[in-house]
Design brief:
This is Universal stress protein. This protein has 146 residues and is an alpha/beta fold. Helix content is 47%, strand content 21%. The protein has one domain: HUPs (Rossmann fold). It has a five-stranded parallel beta sheet, sandwiched between helices.
């Protein structure tokens, strides 16, 4: 039985598939659902042209995405849906901090996300989740690759 489910989203088609699976599992278990997006600033904070208006635009886009996803989950009948928007290291926040903060017993994430080049360089959120999360982890494969 899962009571508290966390799904990591980044706006990619793969993360939307993970969201759909998380909604299904939450429906079945009558669980609460936390939909989380992490703005990864590790590779851009020193970049030329990085300034507040850029971050505000990224943050506003993320808030709109989370609101859409929350609406979708509620339209499927979920009543306990929360969104979380943070900036920082997604590997740490998704795999370690958020599961502890929200008492998560199932973490759902896509096998791949938006940035495949970064995954090759520093590893994926999915990999970190399997290794570090204090709860069960469901990795959702890309439906197009099946």
């Amino acid at each position: 039985m899962y009571n508290h489910i966390l799904v990591a989203v980044d706006g990619s088609q793969q993360s939307e598939q993970a969201l759909a699976k998380a909604i299904q599992v939450a429906e079945f278990h009558k669980s609460s659902l936390v939909i989380a997006h992490i703005i990864d600033l590790r590779n851009v904070t020193g970049a030329v042209g990085f300034h507040d208006s850029w971050f505000v635009r990224i943050e506003n886009d993320a808030k709109e995405m989370l609101a859409r996803y929350k609406e979708l989950a509620e339209a499927k009948g979920l009543t306990k849906v929360e969104t979380v928007l943070k900036s920082g290291n997604p590997r740490f926040l998704i795999a370690e901090e958020l599961p502890k903060t929200y008492h998560i017993d199932l973490l759902v994430t896509a096998a791949t996300g938006r940035n495949r080049v970064e995954r090759l360089l520093i590893g994926s959120v999915a990999e970190a989740s399997v290794r570090q999360a204090p709860c069960d982890v469901m990795i959702v494969k890309n439906a197009a690759s099946e």
